[in-house]
């Protein structure tokens, strides 16, 4: 349990809801691994990552009945003078929300989260659901996810890529690009920081990525693409059951000329196929963005994500994202900032964006 917060307990009949104790992480993860609706972002390791990387308070709630876990809800609280006060499942993650064995456990976790949000006085409680849970709550129709089955044969996956995109992959192959699995995040950060700087987006800290590797081990993998020993692109991917999810990635300035990013995702897909994985989760994107179009070009179809909000102090759904017009000037100024300075300042901003 987070030592900075008092335990939060909500009881209903024979079922109880309380906060996770640090010593119970393995129990939590065993439940998550077995639940059909679970995602990588429900894992207990996010508690330590969010606390240690960003110094945010976490409230990982678990529901128990007769000593057995029957539901979980990972929550984290962000309190920022610039971006407001929120409680969500889960900041910095594409998916989240309640996992439960039955309606009673789900209702108890939901009630506990709403009561906690009210007690904390946050602007809003946010659930990042893949399936709608609260049709009466305000929602944000902005994010979609892209998932596709991985064919059992490598060549079948190549042939399933639409012709124009397949040509880009072959361009990277012809250029002599090579994929390598890294044991650390140093080369990844070189490519990632260059990419987000071009987009005008604040960068996460090096420490954040090191913590991801430490918390999730082999389930957090770095694939780096090189050309004659020089870094071209790199991606951090998460593995959960039979799925692979490339989550953070980017390319250096040299990537475009040799289709570095295109080759990178193909190399990841090829490796996933050879490992016998079944699903390639291209992750979330905002509608109307280049990332959305890029994934469509691969033949992936978007599925809406249901980000739902229980408003406490806020009167409207928060709009903290780069598509908000009020951030346009900030983004353009950030692109012109020297990258070394952006890398130094960025982590202090992005930790409050969630």
From TrEMBL:
SUPFAM superfamilies: Acyl-CoA N-acyltransferases (Nat). Gene3D superfamilies: 3.40.630.30. It holds the Pfam family Acetyltransf_6. Residues 165-296 form the BioF2-like acetyltransferase domain. NCBIfam families: pepcterm_femAB. This is BioF2-like acetyltransferase domain-containing protein.
């Amino acid at each position: 349990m987070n030592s900075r917060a008092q335990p939060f307990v909500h009881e209903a009949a024979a079922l109880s809801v309380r906060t996770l104790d640090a010593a119970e992480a393995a129990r939590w993860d065993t439940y998550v691994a077995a639940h059909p609706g679970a995602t990588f972002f429900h894992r207990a390791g996010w508690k330590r990552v969010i606390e240690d990387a960003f110094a945010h308070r976490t409230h990982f709630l678990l529901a128990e009945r007769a000593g057995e876990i029957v539901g979980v809800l990972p929550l984290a609280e962000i309190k920022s003078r610039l971006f407001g006060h929120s409680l969500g499942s889960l900041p910095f993650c594409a998916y989240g929300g309640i996992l439960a064995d039955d309606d009673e456990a789900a209702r108890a976790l939901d009630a506990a989260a709403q009561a906690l949000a009210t007690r904390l006085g946050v602007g809003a409680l946010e659930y990042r659901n893949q399936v709608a849970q609260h049709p009466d709550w305000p929602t944000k129709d902005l994010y979609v996810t892209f998932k596709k089955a991985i064919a059992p044969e490598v060549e079948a996956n190549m042939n399933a890529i639409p012709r124009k995109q397949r040509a880009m992959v072959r361009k990277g192959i012809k250029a002599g690009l090579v994929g390598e699995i890294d044991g650390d995040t140093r080369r990844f950060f070189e490519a990632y920081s260059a990419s987000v700087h071009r987009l005008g987006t604040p960068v996460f800290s090096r420490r954040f990525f090191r913590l991801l590797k430490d918390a999730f081990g082999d389930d957090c993998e770095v694939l780096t693409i090189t050309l004659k020993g020089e870094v071209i692109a790199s991606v951090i991917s998460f593995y959960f059951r039979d799925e692979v999810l490339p989550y953070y990635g980017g390319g250096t300035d040299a990537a475009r000329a040799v289709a570095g990013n295109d080759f990178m995702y193909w190399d990841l897909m090829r490796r996933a196929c050879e490992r016998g994985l079944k699903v390639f989760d291209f992750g979330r994107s905002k509608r109307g963005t280049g990332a959305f179009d890029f994934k469509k070009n691969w033949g992936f179809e978007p599925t809406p994500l249901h980000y739902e909000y229980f408003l406490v102090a806020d009167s409207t759904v928060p709009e903290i994202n780069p598509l908000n017009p009020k951030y346009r000037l900030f983004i353009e100024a950030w692109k012109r900032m020297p990258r070394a300075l952006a890398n130094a300042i960025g982590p202090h901003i992005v930790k409050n964006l969630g």
